[in-house]
Amino acid sequence: MRRLLVAAALIAAAGCGTTTAQPLGQVQLSAADALAQTAQKAEDVQSYAADIVVDFSDPKGGAGNVRGTMLFQQKPTLASDITLSQVTFGGQALPGGVRVILDGETAYLKLDLLKQLAGTTKPWVKVSLTDLGDDASVRQFLSQAQQIDLKSAVALLTASKDVQAAGNETVGNVQTTHYTGTFPVAEAVKLLPPDAQAGLSGQLSVVKDMKFDAWIDAEGLPRKIQLNGGADQATFTAALVFTSFNEQLSISAPPADQVGEMPKNAPVAE
User: Fold this and answer.
1) Residues 138/127, Cβ–Cβ less than 8 Å
2) Confidence at residue 36, expressed as pLDDT on a 0 to 100 scale
3) pLDDT digits (tens, 9 = 90+) for 2-23
4) Are 139 and 129 in contact (CB under 8 A)?
5) For the chain, which domains are there?
6) Beta strands in the chain (DSSP E)
7) What pLDDT does 25 receive?
């Protein structure tokens, strides 16, 4: 069950290429250079807000989808707030969705299902990354939630060797250039920091080549990133639609009187 809690929050949502020149602001760049510049721009982004859209299909378990939002900030402290308002699988919906707030080394989880399965009495439960002991799976998932960010998402795309421009499109009232391509997952993961490589390589190892679409604005910032993959007849589409960059965000822990500890008897899903 614990894996289910944190894994749901991680859906979220990252060179070489063709030489066809495409406009980025007032500069003509190749498609590969445009992605490389976007990766550099992402290094300077201190906060962002994004919508999360995930659809997946598994012949063994049925179809499902996830809808939600994500807030992320680097300063004054590393923090994120992920709200998955809709989580369904095989025709069954997760009652009340799930919300995860990560504040430094502490995660706060809000999941109505915990009340039924573990008898929690508080709306939120707290998990400390430093107190997880031998529960390595939970620590890994929570760490990944901190690592799967804008910079990682864009970095994965720069491993593409076949990226090309697909025209100009508007995303959220912003003019963008649409790029498409694929990247080899094994090679792309090597572009990430060492602490992020192990977890993501495991999550994506079933996919050899990932298809992607990226919509980049005139400032070199991604307005939308979409990944498409599949293996063993299972498929998924995951998209992040960015709604703001470098704006003041409000990410804080829930009130103390609404927070309890993760029950020791909470079942762990394998």
Assistant:
1) yes
2) 92
3) 333 334 334 333 322 333 334 4
4) yes
5) 2-14+17-242 (2.50.20.20)
6) 21-24, 27-30, 47-58, 62-73, 79-89, 92-93, 98-103, 106-110, 124-128, 164-171, 174-184, 209-217, 222-231, 234-245, 259-261
7) 46
Residue 6 corresponds to which tokens in the numbers above?
Answer: 């944190």
Distances (CA, A) of 81 to 70, 161, 181, 210: 6, 34, 30, 27
Q: 122 Cβ partners below 8 Å, 6+ apart?
A: 258, 259, 260
**pLDDT higher than threshold 90 for residue 49:** yes
Q: Which of 80, 19, 25 is nearest to 50 (CA)?
A: 80
- Does the N-terminal peptide bond of residue 193 adopt cis geometry, omega within 30 degrees of 0? no
The predicted model scores a pTM of 0.79
Structure tokens at 21: 């020149």
Q: What is the pLDDT of residue 195?
A: 60
CA 198 – CA 144 distance, rounded (Å): 9
